[in-house]
């Protein structure tokens, strides 16, 4: 028996002489003492008889230890293939409109926003197409997210898609997970009741700091602030629909995030929300998109198999304030305050690397692979009126990931975000390598998730 190549140690934590042990493939963790760590960390293999049989078996089930003959390179290839081709869950993001009532300063859709809404005929076509794909793939679960623009500008369109799909899944005993990504301005109680009736039970709402910072970043089109209205809405609907908060951060508002945490605690919302996370704003997302889009035309043709604890957040993008370390510290602070911070570690794979089990459908019936690419013709991979998906020009899984498969961080990086690669280099095939960040902050991420685990479950193994 030997130590898995995907196992790492946080030395002398949580106490001196103890070592928090984490496997990056299974995301299982255990606390080992000095003697046991020295034994399993010895070069090559060790005699499993030196460990109590039950403990050895448990560490093997967790992936921390593996049998000598196990080919872990082959296992990671199999794992990646399972995630990439997973047909058990069909993931669809449906845009109810390209229109928006906000004028966010960093909006990635600034060049494509227009008053186009999902109508009744297109909603019916969307429902039929999703059902056909699920039946073709034998899907057991539908993850359905509504997106925009601002999706609540067209609640009727949302209902016309979610209602029939909820009924379809219920009639067949399938799982249904409905959510909406909204700016929160229209998430009042009447709309929350309408959402809940069609199975949309979670809303992701963005708050970019305290009132002053948020209103500068995310004003209404008329220029007036949106913060206070959103807060009143959250207080109205938290008992009807799960609220998960997100914050977008750069050098202009990073100082305002702790103030937001204070404000949530003061208004009693900290214990009423289902999650909170902070992501980075990249200036390239708005300023560099059109410059690089031409380069795309030259290109030639959530559930991990072994994940122990499913988590839903992805890692943050770089910020103008410096780097992802700032974001990690903010999320860690939220966890230490007792706010429902999302775990730092999750198995991750870019949507562009997934097969037909993950799509974005716009109000016109155009199909994309990533919400950041909607509205741009070069990134269309299909049309509901035609039925088929063709995205050879975007297919980037292949030799460029070869070096990644030997990296300990591959299960949480997955080759990185291809949209960020596109913005940085103009070539969506390039890897957005995050090894330097994980080398520096991997242990801190493990410690953060350990602290969250203790709050949720008590003492681990």
Total beta strand runs: 14
CATH topology of the largest domain: TIM Barrel
Share in β-strands: 15-25%
Question: What would CATH call the architecture of the largest domain?
Answer: Alpha-Beta Barrel
- CATH level 1 class label of the largest domain: Alpha Beta
Largest sheet: 9 strands, mixed
Instruction: Tell me the CATH superfamily of the largest domain.
Output: Aldolase class I
Overall residue-averaged pLDDT value: 85
Q: What is the overall silhouette?
A: globular
Distance between the termini: 20 Å
Number of domains: 2
Based on the structure, what is the oligomeric state of the protein chains? single chain
User: Which strand order spans the largest sheet, edge to edge or round the barrel?
Assistant: 11-10-9-8-7-6-12-13-14
Radius of gyration: 23 Å
Count of separate DSSP helical elements: 15
Uncertain runs with pLDDT below 50, 5 residues or more?
284-322
**Order of secondary-structure elements:** EEEEHHEHEHEHEHEHHEHEHHHEEEHHH
């Amino acid at each position: 028996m030997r130590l898995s190549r995907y196992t790492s140690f946080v030395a002398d934590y949580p106490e001196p002489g103890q070592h928090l042990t984490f496997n990056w493939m299974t995301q299982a963790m255990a606390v080992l003492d000095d003697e046991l760590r020295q034994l399993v960390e010895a070069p090559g293999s060790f005699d499993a008889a030196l460990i109590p049989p039950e403990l050895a078996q448990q560490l093997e089930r967790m992936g921390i230890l593996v049998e000598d003959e196990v080919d872990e390179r082959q296992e990671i290839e199999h794992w990646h293939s399972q995630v990439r081709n997973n047909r058990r869950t069909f993931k669809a993001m449906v845009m109810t409109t390209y229109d928006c009532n906000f004028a966010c300063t960093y909006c990635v859709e600034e060049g494509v926003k227009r008053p186009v809404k999902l109508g009744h005929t297109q909603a019916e076509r969307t429902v039929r197409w999703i059902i056909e794909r699920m039946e073709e793939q034998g899907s057991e679960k539908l993850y359905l997210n509504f997106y925009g623009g601002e999706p609540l500008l067209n609640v009727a369109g949302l209902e016309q898609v979610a209602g029939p799909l909820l009924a379809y899944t219920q009639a067949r005993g399938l799982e249904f997970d409905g959510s909406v990504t909204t700016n929160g301005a229209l998430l009042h109680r009447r709309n929350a009741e309408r959402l809940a009736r069609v199975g949309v039970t979670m809303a992701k709402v963005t708050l970019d700091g305290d009132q002053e910072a948020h209103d500068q970043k995310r004003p209404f089109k008329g220029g007036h602030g949106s913060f206070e209205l959103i807060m009143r809405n959250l207080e109205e609907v938290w008992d009807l629909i799960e609220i998960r908060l997100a914050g977008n951060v750069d050098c202009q508002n990073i100082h305002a995030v702790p103030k937001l945490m204070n404000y949530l605690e003061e208004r009693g919302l900290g214990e009423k929300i289902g999650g909170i996370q902070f992501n980075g704003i990249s200036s390239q997302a708005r300023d560099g998109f059109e410059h690089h889009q031409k380069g795309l035309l030259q290109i030639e043709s959530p559930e991990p198999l072994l994940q122990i604890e499913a988590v839903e957040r992805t890692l943050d993008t770089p910020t103008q304030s410096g780097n992802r370390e700032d974001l990690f510290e903010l999320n860690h602070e939220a966890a230490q305050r007792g706010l429902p911070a999302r775990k730092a570690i999750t198995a991750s794979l870019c949507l562009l690397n997934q097969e037909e089990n993950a799509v974005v459908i716009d109000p016109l019936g155009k199909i994309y692979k990533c919400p950041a690419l909607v509205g741009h013709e070069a990134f269309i991979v299909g049309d509901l009126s035609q039925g088929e998906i063709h995205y050879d020009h975007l297919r980037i899984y292949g030799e460029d990931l070869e070096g990644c498969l030997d990296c300990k961080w591959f299960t949480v990086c997955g080759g990185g975000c291809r949209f960020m690669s596109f913005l940085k280099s103009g070539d969506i095939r390039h890897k957005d390598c995050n090894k330097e960040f994980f080398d520096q902050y991997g242990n801190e991420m493990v410690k953060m998730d350990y602290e969250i685990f203790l709050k949720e479950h008590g003492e681990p193994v």
